[in-house]
Amino acid sequence: MIIQPVDYALVVWFTLATLSTAYVAWDQFRNNPEPRVMKWGFILVTLYMGPIGLLLYVLADKEPRPGEHEAFTRPLWKQGVGSTIHCVAGDATGIILAAAVTAALGLPMWVDLIVEYIAGFAFGLFIFQALFMKSMLGGTYWENVRRSFLPEFISMNFMMAGMAPVMSFLMMGRDMRAIEPTQLLFWGVMSLSVIVGFAAAYPANVWMVARGLKHGLMTEHPEKKAQPHKKKHGHQRHGGHTAMASDATTPQLAALSGVSLLLLALGMAAPANWVNLSLSARDVGGLIMPPGMFMDRDTPAEAMRDMAAIHPGLIEASHGLDSRGDKVLEPRIENGVKIYDLETSVIRWSILPNVTVDAYAVNGQVPGPRLHFQQGDRVRINVTNRLHESTTFHWHGLILPNEMDGPAEITQKPIEPGGSYAYEFTAEQSGTYFYHSHDHVDRQQALGLYGALIIDPANPTDELKTDHEYVIQLQEWLMREGLTYPAMPMDGGQPNYFTINGRAYPATDTIRMKVGETLKLRFIGTSNGFIHPMHIHGGPFEVVARDGETLKPSARFLADTVNVGPGQRYDVIWKAQQPGKWLIHCHIGHHTTNNNVEEKGGGGLMVVIEVSPQASTAEH
User: Whole-model pTM?
Assistant: First the structure.
């Protein structure tokens, strides 16, 4: 699934790789006079390295004109290309197969690297070298294993020293689709790793060819294909090529082997200082972390899962600006009990024209539906979980039986995907409350699992009446490169969009009233990690309730700004004293922008009260 800009580049890359491989295969078997093992070597390497493999083939191996292949491939740098091609074709095949298998088995990354090395070395030595080169090297299979062991060991060490850190940093980096074999990015990382591994192994292969330790490119003459091998002075000839007699000294081989082992150890182990190699594809495969988020070797998989973007493939529905959140949910009544049905899901939600976020929704809306009942009512709230992770709901500030309170693993078992839970209690209080997720809270509430809960007093005269009423639920969002992450007060988690009742200004409501009328605003801190100093223009308001409790007349006070923190609620009454457009907004300037940009005078946490001399109605 294409969900990031890199995916488009990968589609282009693998299209070119396919075309390049097809050309090399066609040209090798139709025109190029070299042994079959080298033909397949170039085909496989071009499959792994794409146009770079094609370039190497054309520059170093493709016969320019009939009969010139042997002279064309004679330069040492080309012989080194041929030797490295042969190494990479075998070793990379084993490495790639091992990477796919270990990821499927859910093995941690550090085990994956070890298995990849063993598989790559074994495939290269026992198949590509000892078996496929047997006809050219002569001797028995096990003689060829012994003869090829040290050159293959050195070449493999250098190659894996280049590949290992690339795989570690990219597979355990921000976009961890790279560790999942079902994702295109996995194969893109493998391709890049092979390219880096080729570059790392090439100098050692040039030296080994020069010293007679390895074969380079060879020419297979048609008239000699059927000739038996002939030995001369301990050398073996095949197709015009003499078998090797090395002049490398023991100190040289020991030094080169030692350096290759040192680089291999660094390449395999050093990334563990920066990334968590104890994780596997089953732990984090497919997750995409927010840009700039700090992850280190100790970051657990659970933290990554909670901070990751919502995968677009999970979205069940999309809603435009015509859809609204905070819609009052009417209950059905059975045996005197008011019953509400809530269902979680993953949706795409419009917060501005042409701006959408991926969200966790209740009944397909953000915020979730408003539950409005009366003090003394018996209520039952059935929650069905359609997310791909467990959840629970907490009824913030309410007095109720402990098993109905909602904290996962503390008062109840989490509601697993597809499961349900019935919360039932009697409303003992009245005032402004709200509900929200209490499982993976850092993630789920930040992504939209919350809603208003308004309880009217049993005695209607206890309600402070106003001409208009409006509920304001505050929220922050982090949306980058088309993906939505849970906004958090941490590096990489800072929000760039802000909403009131699921909309950002100028898509928020306009409250219409007339001079002399009063407006009750219920501020609800449904925000997950940020305090919002909410300010109203056009004169002070009176704070009449806090956290659901109505203040005694002597405790009420006038203000023009209240700090609404996560979980807090304030009921305030504002009187329209002058006609015009008066703002309700957060007094943190950044919170009144949309992705750091002001539009039509602001953005984010802003609502306009439009006051006229004539009677009007509030738009909800």
Answer: 0.87
